Amino acid sequence: MLEMAPTKQAAAWLESLAQTLAAGDETAAANLFVDDCYWRDLLTFTWNVTTMEGREAIAAMLEATLATTKPTAWQITGEATSDEGTIEAWFTFETAVASGQGILRLRDGRCRTLFTAMTDLKGFEESKGSDRPLGVRHKADPERETWSEARARETRELGASEQPYCLVIGGGQGGIMLGARLRQLGVPTIVIEKNARPGDSWRNRYRTLVLHDPVWYDHLPYIPFPENWPVFTPKDKMGDWLEMYTRVMELNYWVATKCLSASYDETQKEWTVVVDRVGRQVTLKPKHIVFATGAYGPPRKIDLAGAEQFKGELLHSSHYASGEKFRGRKVAVIGAASSGHDVCVDLWESGADVTMIQRSPTTVVKSDTLMEVGFEIFSESALERGITTEKADMIVASTPFALVPKGQRALYEVIKARDAGFYDRLRASGFAIDFGDDETGLLMKAYRTGSGYYIDVGASDLIIDGKIGIRSGVAIKSLTKNGILFEDGSELEADAIIACTGYQSMNENVAALVSREVADKVGPCWGLGSGVKGDPGPWQGELRNMWKPTAQEALWFHGGNLALSRFYSKYVALQIKARMEGVQTPVYGKPSNS
């Protein structure tokens, strides 16, 4: 077998897998994998977002799921590739209720990683391509209802005489993308947003905010950005795009609407959700609710001794909009991650005398470096090689989280060598740099804690040049009347203090709107259980509670950056659609509520 061409080797292995699964021989199927193997599944076998690590875990999963999954029609698509002894191939397959695709990687004739992902529910596929709706009825009819009349009726009735099947709480990028996915699957959905307009969650941020990720990484589903869209999107332009998107994708999107409370009836299998819609209380009865509040919950506010005596302004970054009112004033910014850097730049550009207070080391990566070596498959050159955003998404998703650190560690060795002079100058300014507990850099910090990193788009040069002051390596003892007193006895005068101290877990929103009991039952969101500070074990293998069933029936979490929201919104929508249509969804694996 090892002497065959890569595509033939991949096809032979896939055929062996198909035969063992058809025979119901879980042990034989597991033996097709190497010892240190991984199978990551998005819904097809497990109705979960989960990774099986090792042969025993794979065999156990198959023993529990094969009878209902009934996988068939395994087929290699395209040509396999071979790189340093690893053969990679894409394939399609079917289950009893869905179609799927995946990626396999072989080493010495056996599988190292297998990735399977649902593409469609049989009989409930999206109406697109050759199956797109006609849009008109070619027949004279005095009772004809136009498109605008139908939309007006739907908007008028949904949430009043008819109830949504799903309520999405949070109308930022994540809620909007999920709303679009659910819409295309025919799931009656309302997305609620506390702001006055779609996109205000971006517009209301500080003046100079620009996306740090490139355009190829940030597309929304169904409607990609046009080819002349800037590489890095300004916040207000992003807000306008989201507003356009909600209209074009025909979302039932309630602005100026705040969720007041939610409770679940275990008997009726239904939520009762009270919202304030433009000052009027409305009670909704959805079957499912999705918290789509980014990747975070309420602002994390730190207790500062002496805060009551500080005569200046003290605010969290979530309430910071512009540095204009701080012109000519001394401002201390607590926090040295992305928001801390961006706020410092905005303050400096507005004419403030700004000092960053760094409480722990930060991973910093130059934007142009990351563009060249970190976003290789999300780029114009990738498109020229046939790697679309959708294909790149699958490539990223096909790598189990347990294997990501090795590749990231190697990447950051390249980055550290490439930008050694930059890091030397930044350290010399007094700024503390790290690359994570295990030298795996920005991406692993993002997955593990969602904090502690910055993609440099200009702030680092200001720090190096002394235009942004830096206080690092000494803790805050207390606030004083006129500023900050540090543990070493030094003081920093400040007219205002802005705390860029991040956000709590999304389950804290559940505590506020549902109950503390349900929030604790569900457990925290985000993090892999890697054992580093802020991400305690046990190892999860997946991001806690994100995009999959939780310990509370009919309660979901959806969010992350634009790329994660784009990709995983599909799988949240498929899970909810299946339940609406009565498709059996036996979930394999326990909720990640620890």
From TrEMBL:
The keyword Oxidoreductase applies. One of its GO terms (molecular function) is flavin adenine dinucleotide binding. Residues 127-153 are annotated as: Disordered. Residues 138-153 have a biased composition (Basic and acidic residues). Keywords: Oxidoreductase. InterPro entries: Auxin_biosynth/cation_transpt, FAD/NAD-bd_sf, NTF2-like_dom_sf. The keyword Oxidoreductase applies. This is NAD(P)/FAD-dependent oxidoreductase.
